[in-house]
Task: structure prediction
Amino acid sequence: MAEEVEKTKKSVDTASLELIDKAGTDQVSLAFDRAERMKPCPIGAVGSCCKNCGMGPCRVPLPKGKEETPEEKKKRRGICGATSETIAARNFIRMIASGAAAHSDHGRGVAELFLAAARGKAPGYEIKDEQKLLALALEWDIEIGDRSNNEIAIDIGEKALAEFGRQEGEVLFLKRAPLKRQELWRQQGVAPRGIDREIVEIMHRTHIGVDQDYQNLLKQGVRSSLADGWGGSMLATELQDILFGTPAPVLGQVNLGVFKEDEVNLVIHGHEPLLSEMIVAAAQEPEMIALAKSKGANGINLAGMCCTANEIIMRHGIPLAGNFLQQELALVTGAVDAMVVDVQCVMESLPDIAQCYHTKIITTSPKAKISGAMHIEFDEHKAMEGAREVVRIAIENFPRRGKNIRIPKEKCDLIAGFSHETINYLLGGLFRASYRPLNDNIINGRIRGVAGVVGCNNARTAHNEGHIAMVKELIKNDVLVLQTGCSAMASAMAGLMVPEAAKYAGEGLASVCEAVGIPPVLHLGSCVDNSRILIAATAMVKDGGLGDDISDLPAAGAAPEWMSEKAISIGQYFVASGVFTVFGVTWPTTGSKEVTDFLFKDMEELYGGMWAFEPDPVKAAQLMIAHIDKKRKALGIDKARERVLYDMEMRREMESA
Ligand code: SF4
Ligand code: MSK
Result:
């Protein structure tokens, strides 16, 4: 078992370090400081604490420094008799339930808005991607004929909403997976029904005195995670694309240097793009710009934070102010006039920190209020009015800015907007869109494999360090990297998401990137957009030559700085889809050897993918590369790589492909 790496610094990002320093001067307490003051509970951290009933909490830690006898192990139980295996497995799948619920409730919100828009009850929203609407109608057997887009969208919206509560059968998108994978899920009994049902079943089974077989508990964890990845999250991505437009490559900028001293700075933070889409439109209205000018500002500068940032850069090129651990730092600049938040990954410390400056914190979701913040509830029937109100509050607050302002100079260009459709088009061209060139370059060894690197920041490890070190190691070894979430932003801040970053890539990957004109690290969007990675992996299988299941692909996944329960759900659906997946920082089941061995070893037998834990990001990347090489060997394409020498003829052939 890998040892945890000791944290030596707070961040590897100089803009963040500058503002951490300023926060110290301003006597503002940050997550970085709280992490130093609060040591993690060593029993809870490894999954050995149960508080599922009023007789507990019961702690069942492994004895330190000595081998446990079978007799001693038998006695190491909670009051109800629960073993350390049951407790660790229950804790683990409750994390999956929470993570899957977060993604999928986001998806449900999108489905509700989608339906309201189709019925003409959500003014300002309309179908933006007709092609994707019609493709989904065909996939779901919804009549197209001469019906209007809205008529078709009503049927799609109703069907999508029904998916969440589906009591029987399987979620519809499961059929998108390779056939072999679908069969495997059915054989294992994990093909999921609706997400609501699977999550309720986790909560039922983990109640005191219900499921007390750790393998059976973990199986339900798999089922629920699949309902997230191939259900709730995929629905969110698909419907958002239809409603707001499918992303296409777009130039943007990232890091705290995107704030402007002479403009109103409004940060949009959280996850759901429902309101932020309207804020983007409201901030461009001439009346709003005129109002900003009347207050002495030169304009309105929108910037995103966390996954809302990913949503709005993918579709509008709006700059990314930062990732999870930079949300407090944005306020410390003293230059943010308002920060509007919805759900997930929003720190409760924000209103307190805002008091030290002038920033207004505005909550918008009835599901997520914060004491000390203003609340303007998002109402889909009057979304534009709500958006204008938010923008107006930011503008009115601009003159209240104090003198204690420091905007770091760091900002970096990136190309975002790599949806599955875009990758397909970029690789194959408009008339023969396909993953064929990618598969061919994997088979001939120029690209060694593909890695999905995703997930959060974690204050227990140096901000961004793990993401950047891992991604650099992967591309250096010719592994094409697909990213989402805060991880994508970390790489973008390190300059890895521009075509020039090919200089960090191995010769084979660099030559393909140069020929196609893409960066070696592709930004696929927000946390729910991990479903795009599933679709990309499936497209690779379907294009042929790399086996007949996702588990055959020379591919791996990772979340080197994970912290959110959503990351556990994502990791579990990657593993259950056949992907080797490595997490860093900490691992939540090490209190039970049996549960950990099951996740790290036995799952490979059952699903062709398994978990691993390695806090050193470079070593973790090497594990991924070793797995990729194992898969290349199994496919019989390991020799091709050895032969790759890149003479001029090969380069010409690639450029004309
Ligand atoms: Fe303790 Fe069992 Fe209650 Fe958990 S469910 S707190 S192990 S008695
Ligand atoms: S925002 S879930 S910290 S990636 Fe999606 Fe970032 Fe993780 Fe939240």
